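User: Second chain of the day. Same drill as before.
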Amino acid sequence: MSDFFTLIGQIFVVFLIQLVLEVFIDTGKHPYQAAIINIACFLGSLYFLLDFLFNKVLVGLNTMVPTSFF
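Assistant: Same format as last time:
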């Protein structure tokens, strides 16, 4: 459960970084920079989510399901 809270914290930090960067960049004058920041923050959050999924959830699921089927 603490790993899940760590994931939520990491995604929240990425969200805060995105908000701070959007304040410094005028999105009306620089729409491409705002789009790049949005895409980078989305990919960062996706990385954290996939890292949690593959390293915590699937490993835990693999230990619960017996491997005698393979």
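Helices lie at 2-24, 31-64.

User: Great, on to the next one.
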